[in-house]
Amino acid sequence: MTVEAEGPERRFEFDDLKGSVAQAAVDGDPGAGFEETLRRLLDPGSALRSLHWGRSYLYEARWRPAGREAGTAVVVKQFRHDDLRARLRRRRRGTRARLSFRAARRLRRLGVSTPEPVLYAESNTIDGPAWYVCHLVPEALELRYVLRALNAGAASEQFPGIHGPTLLRRVGALAAELHRHGVWFRDLTSGNVLLAEPATDAELFLVDLNRARFRRRLSTSQRLRDLSRMPVLRPEDRAEYLAGYRPGGLPALQRLWFEACHHGFRLKLGSKRGARRGLRRLADLLLPRRRAHPHIPEAERGASATERTVWDPLTDQPHQQATRGQRLGVRLRDVGHHARPLLRSAVPLLLSVAEARRARRVLDRAPAPVRFSGLGVAVGPGSAPVASLAGAIDDLGVDTVLLRFHLWQGVDSELLELARTLRGGERPVDLVFQFCQDRSLVRDPGLWRRRVEEAAAALAPCGRRFLIGQAPNRSKWGVWRPGDYWSLLAAGAGAVRAECPDACLLAPAVIDFEPHATAALIHSGSAAGRFDVLASQLYVDRRGAPENRQLGFDLAGKLAVLRSLARRAPDCTSGRSWVTEFNWPLAEGPHAPAGRDVAVDEDAQASYLVRYALEALGSGLAERVYWWQLAAAGYGLLDPRGDGLRQRPAYLALRQLQRELAGAEVLRLRMPSGLRGYRALREGREIRIVWAPGGSGCSYRPQGELRAVRDRDGRELERVPAVLGGAPVYVECETGGPSAGT
Predict the structure, then answer these.
(1) Residue 366 phi/psi, 5° resolution?
(2) Whole-prediction pTM value?
(3) 629: cis peptide before it, omega within 30°?
(4) Per-residue pLDDT tens for 400-416?
(5) What does 671-707 look like in DSSP terms, one character per residue?
(6) Cβ burial, residue 625 (10 Å; 0-12/13-18/19+)
């Protein structure tokens, strides 16, 4: 590394990185440990939490250079240069990270508040990422949330410590200060102004500085265009905002000009959103797929479409680098391989759909009591220490656990240790072992069989349930034809039964609700493809709440289709149906296993978990369901980042669900419009679980004497909430009360 003093900053350069660090952020010469500290900081795997996930990714991390005992909370903003426009802009003006660092230093010299800059770093390749790092404002509130409340007329209820007119005047005064110093900010929007706390007199910080231009003097056009970007929608609020910018407001002609710019900018934003969606779909079809995040490696140069899969360690799944067009070409070439299974299974599929619709209607008219059991969690390799996982499983009170093995990496020693720990514990835990494949194992059936034999021999003393394969309807897992999966199943089943003759086999683990794919894969017509339980990875993350419909079916309807398919399929010997994987992804940037558009917050995830488990197990349409997975950054019940394992709301919700209902007799209630509910009888107690799928606005008045009321996570409530929302509530009543419509 070469280091040279340059005022209050020090430059650094490595083989693939260069940049500058503020002198205050390091003690003298950065030293030999600086590179390791820097690379750890710039790795999104070091994120403690995501702050923003969009074209750029912002996350909180810990900056602790060598020689310092205490770390500093910082924000890392990762810029990408994947497209031509970004690369041209980088050639012309430098990276946005460098521009942000320089702008932050200049603004602080001018007395304008912005988080203290720490460093910037940029890759040496033109299309590589760049990073800007600054201090974290701990309790920061984005101005956008206050303005949204003001625009909706709800600011006084949502932010009682903020006086809207006064705050708007302060924001206008901040814009005036910028313009007096010749700063044309060019992105003066509500998302780029932070309040140090939710108070009227809180310090205002400017962020997202890379577009700022520094001039001697700004023109009227530049000033008004800057002002017009702030989304102040009500006329009376705009008057306060402009009064803060200039006492008495703008002159009449400038006010008209401002209004034209303001409405034009709002129209431009609306039109760009639709255009971007269309262009993105077209580009995804025709152009090489952009990496979702810079940490994902490129596919091997010259690799064919079927071999363009790389592993993404942060989401714990493969990433498909082939474009949709390339994948479509492979599908068209293999159309015969797909057509025969689809034709063979068409009639059973239609009959199953018809039977499922009848079963769904019966469930509404005459629900039957069901024993609530089978709620479990899944664990993947490398998620957390074995002792912590075993302790969490015991605390949750679940009786069944699925362990996923990535067999291209061999038998994971920590998962094997966890299996032995759970099997030998005081409380019995039923174990399911899933054997996953990648493209290399699909290409080499002999290697696949040897890996399964090795894993089955090690695991057979701990359990007898084995799930063969992973998501065969997704090419990123290496399976392109139905025959590929049937070969995996036949070889895997033979290897397992050789080690464990009484094994219970699960297959095929189709992901998402694709009944045609499930039907095709379970009608192989071969005795070698026989299995005992239909396994489905039934996600609904692209449909929001579990009650939402897809292809005309809500969750119960989907489960009814899968159960009917299992009963009709010649390959499934028992007709049983399990959901071996479900979750909702969180808005956690590169840690999230699905796109930003389908991500939810932690509170919604917890409510959806309870509602999914009740609809699946309480209806009797699924024998078991497993949450994927116990500990993971982007979707797990536990967050493994930082010190220890943080319990997310979903963890508390699952634990409370088990405590309330494990082993209980559950009956679906016929509820008033807008409500859903179940009644559970257990140990002389009657518990009703109620919620409003639409989110809020529905009241519930149970009949009979109430013993207790608890919220979704187990906290005691004084009474049933006046208005129910999407979070289920547990109402404990005297036994023998009305069972429906109450």
Answers:
(1) -140, 75
(2) 0.91
(3) yes
(4) 999 999 999 999 999 99
(5) --TT-EEEEEEETTEEEEEEE-TTSS-B-----S-EE
(6) buried
